[in-house]
Inverse folding.
């Protein structure tokens, strides 16, 4: 009789990450390109302030810091940025940037403003504490729109004449990757959960959807003619796209990434930019040619019959944060990693030469305490040391069959058992391919070893290794 002993082994761990928040609005700042002013709209009453704010030449875009104290306005014709003190709506500083600045976006912590300089292919980074340019980043040809992710880790820059989007690592202020999108990308908006970035392609009449985890285009959505602005609602359910050439607004369902409706009535001529209030109730569309702003009810997706008259050539707009909202964050910390535990040894049944030794190895346990949104993993089994005995020939993995068996004590599945098969190479024992959060499962695999008729008598010992990743 031959006695076979199967020894088992172990593996590796990992870590986790945190979340973010937002804020609503009472006022909307609108850059009037043709007359060098900024109009201020009260979004509660939908009335336009009597006196616009004079800024630089051809103001194009607006961004407001999270605490609402400053608005940054890019002046395309004078190569600078006007800083508006929102307490008294006066210009407190003027910052020289690159050539023909267009888009501007502020980081969620309010420490930086990124300005896209369309004339020289750069991005100016403004330190908002000192209102000075701290560094300049080379991006693609004719950068226009820029948006920062809710966690502040990345900025996405639409390069109009390159057909690309530059991804900025905001910690290093360097380009980390470049994504090819449609023709003449103009604007970018990121969903509140940070999972997707929507890019309007002015020349190909569509919107590219970027998966911000992989920084690859996941889908392309056909919209109206010459899409320009894009904005996502606070709850992340809809994206609004202004179609400059067809004078309408496409409404995108962000779950299906398909156009759910098109708003035409009460949209002016040359709809340029669109922003949504932070409470999510309204979307405002700047109509460049008719010098007014359309107000959309985001529940019904209809525009008010009353269009708000502003200055000449309204382009970019931004809502000011409502200080009644308190931005609240907290961090969830993972308690552990991804581990696998196995019995130290197992003994299979005795067998005569030419027979099959069989037996169970005992419970193998995978414990996942990484607390991840994507808690997938795969556990494998392999014969790392063939079965041997002094004076005998080794019995290799091609003669050893591994059968995982059913899940035992599963917590937060689903889990999938691998198929039975030989250990000629590593094979999947168990896996979790979907779901989130901490989880665990056990299984008790069976090992069958086909012993050659020429095998010599003795105790055969081999090593079965389980690993997980």
């Amino acid at each position: 009789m031959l006695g076979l002993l199967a020894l088992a082994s172990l593996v590796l761990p990992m870590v986790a990450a945190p979340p973010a928040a937002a804020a609503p609005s009472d006022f909307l700042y609108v850059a009037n390109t043709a007359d060098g002013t900024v109009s201020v709209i009260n979004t509660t009453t939908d009335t336009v302030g009597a006196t616009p704010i004079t800024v630089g030449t051809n103001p194009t875009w607006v961004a407001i810091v999270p605490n609402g104290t400053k608005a940054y306005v890019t002046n395309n014709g004078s190569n600078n940025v006007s800083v508006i003190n929102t307490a008294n709506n006066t210009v407190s500083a003027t910052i020289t940037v690159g050539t023909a600045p267009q888009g501007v976006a502020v980081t969620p912590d309010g420490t930086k403003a990124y300005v896209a300089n369309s004339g020289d292919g750069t991005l100016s980074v403004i330190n908002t504490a000192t209102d000075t340019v701290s560094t300049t980043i080379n991006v693609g040809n004719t950068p226009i729109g820029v948006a920062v992710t809710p966690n502040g880790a990345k900025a996405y820059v639409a390069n109009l004449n390159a057909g690309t989007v530059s991804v900025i690592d905001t910690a290093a202020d360097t380009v980390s990757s470049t994504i090819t999108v449609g023709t003449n990308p103009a604007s970018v908006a990121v969903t509140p959960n940070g999972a997707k970035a929507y890019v309007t392609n002015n020349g190909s009449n569509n919107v590219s959807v970027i998966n911000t985890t992989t920084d690859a285009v996941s889908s392309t959505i056909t919209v109206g003619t010459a899409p320009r602005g894009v904005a996502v609602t606070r709850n992340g359910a809809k994206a609004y796209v202004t179609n400059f050439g067809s004078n309408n607004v496409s409404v995108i369902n962000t779950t299906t990434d398909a156009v759910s409706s098109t708003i035409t009535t009460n949209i002016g001529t040359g709809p340029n930019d669109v922003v949504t209030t932070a409470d999510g109730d309204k979307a405002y569309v700047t109509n460049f040619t008719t010098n007014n702003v359309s107000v959309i009810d985001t529940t019904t997706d209809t525009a008010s019959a009353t269009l708000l008259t502003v200055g000449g050539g309204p382009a970019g707009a931004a809502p000011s944060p409502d200080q009644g909202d308190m931005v609240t964050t907290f961090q969830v910390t993972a308690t552990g990693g991804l581990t696998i535990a196995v019995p130290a040894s197992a003994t299979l049944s005795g067998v005569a030469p030419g027979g099959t030794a069989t037996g169970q190895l005992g419970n193998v346990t995978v414990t996942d305490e990484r607390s991840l949104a994507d808690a997938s993993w795969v556990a494998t089994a392999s014969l790392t040391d063939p079965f041997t005995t002094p004076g005998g020939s080794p019995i290799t993995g091609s003669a050893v069959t591994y059968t995982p068996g059913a899940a035992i004590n599963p917590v937060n599945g689903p889990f999938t058992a691998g198929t039975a098969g030989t250990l000629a190479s590593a094979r999947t024992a168990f896996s979790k391919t979907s779901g989130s959060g901490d989880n665990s499962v056990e299984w008790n695999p069976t090992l069958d070893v086909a012993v050659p008729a020429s095998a010599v008598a003795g105790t055969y010992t081999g090593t079965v290794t389980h690993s997980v990743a």
